UniProtKB/TrEMBL annotation:
Places the protein is found: Nucleus
PROSITE patterns: ZN2_CY6_FUNGAL_1, ZN2_CY6_FUNGAL_2
Span of domain Zn(2)-C6 fungal-type: 8-36
Domain of life: Eukaryota
Keyword set, alphabetical order: DNA-binding, Nucleus, Transcription, Transcription regulation
Nucleus is among the record's keywords: yes
Stretch list, region Disordered: 60-115
GO cellular component: nucleus
InterPro entries assigned: Fun_TF, Zn2-C6_fun-type_DNA-bd_sf, Zn2Cys6_DnaBD
Protein name as it appears in the record: Zn(2)-C6 fungal-type domain-containing protein
Record organism: Penicillium capsulatum
């Protein structure tokens, strides 16, 4: 069987015959009576132009005929040439009116990556229109996050993934989809921390949103808050500069509110004291903190529980001018603060039966009766707030986000709630029906069922692996 010749004459090569390499003509061609084309070297040109080698682009194998090469990598030059050709064929705006996208670069709409990108874009749009409203208890125009998101995303590459995880968490938790997004957000956040020399506002925002996911769904979250704080400490001044920006002050206030010990249940780490250390000395004491919906002067009292805040401090708090709805909310928080003082000091173990800072003329020494009155007044304010919101839903639309803390504080007054089972129903009516409410009322229902005043709700939550925020 004949084999292809690689070193024979041109005739044998073309006919795929074995050549004996005889000179000047081979015997194979002479035997078959065909003209032997010889063995000379031939130069082949593509359409008259060399397509490769050192004579690429020349119409003759001479050095002076080689055209000058354009500067840049050949891959980039070819890509730019294809883009120009596509745009010239498709019109002044390419295929879709976007001069930056060509047919070669357009993603396949049926590919998994394109479908995921479209799904994520819808999620992010839902976050901007609905999900972001969960993060504050004041009117939307008072918030500082929404108008700054584009700039913050330029500072933080993980912020987009964290926003997606937050939006997913509002509709579903403890599912494969949620944990996929949540784990991805955590990985990107930790990777960004390792690369960062300073903690930007964008990265800090991403960290606080991760904490928000945990505190709203009973997942461990204070460890993330502690981690962000430690990084702020390691980078020097937590304010970032000697004169911090208003948004940086806002972020520190959010951290301070999250860190308040009374605003969590089942907490797994110690309170850091961010509000007293970094917010009170720098921030203005006037106005309302937008996440909690509470005046800063009232938050000062909550931050002082266990230090210098007494019951009398809450009774003497003057309040601030605002709407009727906010008056209801703040009064419920003020009364809840008094009950937090009693819970912190454990009055049943005091020999005198009287609390420090207790005003004898204002409060009789019989603690159960006083507690019943306080819980009743709290429920009256919460129920009035519920009815006012039903009647005027567009007034202070997001103030309802702040009712969980007084609901919880009233609910853990086990003796009172078991004596007044109708008040349990009132508490449930005042709740929002969110996942956060479901977890809290599951704990409260267990407390009411056991009817044990000595049962610690934080220990009960920790035994279930729950670490819940009340904001």
């Amino acid at each position: 069987m004949s084999t292809r010749s690689h070193q024979g004459c041109w005739t044998c090569k073309r006919r795929h015959r074995r050549c004996d390499n005889a000179r000047p003509t081979c015997a194979n061609c002479a035997c078959h009576g065909v003209e032997c084309e010889g063995y000379e070297v031939r130069l082949r040109w593509g359409a008259g132009i060399a397509s490769r080698g050192r004579f690429m682009g020349a119409d003759k194998p001479l050095e002076e005929n080689v055209p000058a090469r354009p500067k840049g990598r050949q891959r980039d030059i070819s890509k730019q040439k294809k883009m120009q050709e596509t745009q010239s064929n498709a019109g002044p705006h390419g295929l879709s009116g976007d001069p930056q996208i060509t047919a070669q670069e357009r993603p396949d709409p049926w590919s998994p990556k394109a479908a995921r990108a479209e799904h994520d874009a819808r999620l992010f749009n839902e976050f901007l229109t609905h999900g972001i409203n969960v993060l504050h208890s004041t009117n939307a125009e008072d918030t500082m996050l929404r108008p700054r998101l584009p700039r913050l995303m330029e500072e933080s590459t993980c912020l987009y993934a964290v926003c997606l995880a937050f939006q997913i968490s509002l509709s579903t938790t403890h599912t494969a989809v949620f944990f996929e997004y949540f784990d991805m957000a955590l990985r990107e956040f930790r990777s960004e921390l390792l690369r960062s020399k300073t903690l930007s506002d964008g990265t800090l925002t991403a960290g606080l949103l991760l904490c928000s996911i945990g505190l709203m769904h009973g997942l461990p979250w204070t460890m993330h808050l502690e981690g962000v704080y430690n990084i702020l400490q390691s980078h020097g001044d937590p304010h970032g500069t000697a004169t911090p920006s208003p948004f940086r002050i806002h972020l520190l206030e959010v951290m301070g509110v999250m860190d308040l010990a009374c605003f969590s249940v089942g907490r797994q780490t110690q309170c850091i004291g961010i509000w007293r250390r970094y917010c009170q000395p720098v921030c203005s004491r006037l106005g309302v903190e937008p996440v909690s919906g509470l005046p800063r002067t009232l938050l000062d009292l909550f931050a002082g529980i266990g230090f210098d805040t007494t019951e009398q401090s809450f009774w003497d708090w003057p309040g601030e001018t605002s709407s009727f709805m906010k008056f209801y909310l703040w009064e419920a928080h003020r009364l809840a603060g008094i009950l937090c003082i009693r819970r912190h000091i454990q009055p049943n173990k005091l020999s005198s039966g009287e609390l420090p800072g207790f005003s004898a003329w204002r409060h009789p020494p019989t603690i159960p009766a006083e507690t019943t009155v306080l819980v009743g007044r709290m429920l009256a304010n919460l129920d009035a707030l519920r009815l006012a919101f039903a009647e005027r839903p567009d007034e202070d639309a997001f103030i309802k986000n702040a009712v969980l803390f007084p609901i919880f504080v009233a609910g853990i007054q086990i003796t009172v709630l078991c004596q007044h089972p109708e008040w349990q129903a009132t508490l449930r009516r005042c709740a929002l029906g969110s996942r956060q409410d479901d977890v809290v009322f599951d704990l409260l229902g267990d407390l009411w069922k056991r009817n044990d005043p000595d049962l610690n709700v934080d220990d009960l939550a920790r035994s279930r692996g729950i670490e819940m925020g009340l904001i």
